Amino acid sequence: MTDTARVIVITGASDGIGAEMARQWATRGVALVLAARQVDKLEAVAAQCRTSGARVAVQRCDVGVQADCQALAAAAVAAFGRIDVLVNNAGVSAHALLGDVTDLGWYQDVMRVNLWGAVWCTHAALPHLKATRGQVVAVSSLAGLVGVPGRTAYSASKFAMTGFFEALRVELAGTGVGVTLAYPGVVATEIRYRGYNASGQPAGRSGLDERGAMTVEACARLIVDGAEARRRDIVMSAKGKAGRWLKLIAPGLVDRLALKALNQDTHR
Ligand SMILES: NC(=O)c1ccc[n+]([C@@H]2O[C@H](COP(=O)([O-])OP(=O)(O)OC[C@H]3O[C@@H](n4cnc5c(N)ncnc54)[C@H](OP(=O)(O)O)[C@@H]3O)[C@@H](O)[C@H]2O)c1
Q1: Would you say 215 and 205 are in contact if contact means Cβ atoms under 8 Å apart?
Q2: How far does residue 221's CA lie from ligand 1's centre (Å)?
């Protein structure tokens, strides 16, 4: 079946920022393809989106599995005939001091979901995005611009996303496909509680100072509006914006500020 409504594919749409982006986009006359591993949670988000008038397809997808990413692009085209925007939002967090880690296996898991998931989904969707002169959105992090202590795995995965999508943006110049990189700071979701600790288990707590966290609604709004405006970068929070420039002129100061953002009991 083909359709003329714009089609937005969102990974990690079962919770947090991804689910909220879906709810906000649903009010804008689009068709949505929502992807994550937990189908029951996706269905609940889909039902909310349908009450706003959006047509919604749900696809179970573990972005850490390339075949799932390929199936996601195929399912979007099968459901709605096109892909206009791909939002690479699915991600996992981690918080550990490298010296406390005995088995580095989960470092590779973080990389596979955060980097490879986005690479695989983008590769699979690219021909369809070229056909619509669409937009790829990558949800990186301020930790993808500044190295954050206790977050070597997470920062590495987000820096890698930043490098991949900056290179891709230039590569796609002339194709009509745009690339938006979003850099949220601390947003009030459960991601850090679910993220890996040094033993590779769910942390159950946040290693960051959560005071002043941005609301999920505000973060999602910035990404949805930024994607619609085909913005190059969305750097969130005044601290994030300042930190980016400060890093060029006073990198040692940025290191000290990054250290201050940690929960004191997680650093020693
Ligand atoms: N919250 C923050 O402070 C913050 C700051 C900077 C950047 N970010 C980035 O923003 C994005 C969303 O984070 P969030 O805070 O909304 O996290 P969240 O509330 O924990 O939600 C994460 C989403 O990703 C999905 N997901 C996790 N692993 C997946 C996998 N292997 N395959 C498919 N989906 C997977 C989860 O769904 P299932 O479990 O159902 O698969 C869920 O829908 C992430 O990329 C994160 O790194 C967040």
Answers
A1: no
A2: 16
